[in-house]
Amino acid sequence: xxxxxIAPDHHLYSGEVDLIQVPGSNGSFQILRNHAPIISTLDHxxxxxxxxxxxxxxxxxxxxxxxAKNNKxxxxxxxxxx
Length: 82
Description:
0% of the residues lie in helices and 70% in strands. It is built from no helices and eight strands.
């Protein structure tokens, strides 16, 4: 699957992944290859990304939106204030 995670001021991630787990507004959920199309809002929490090599990466977010369709995932994320 192709994943892009975009924050207002920069690109957080772009690449091929096997799994993404996000803090959905109604609870955490994950997306695997061939997932049904979905659009959801995100709450404060961690996004977990597992790439094709098995490397796990985490991103802290304060909310956002995720869209997944045809193995392409786009996350528009609000990042924590520094």
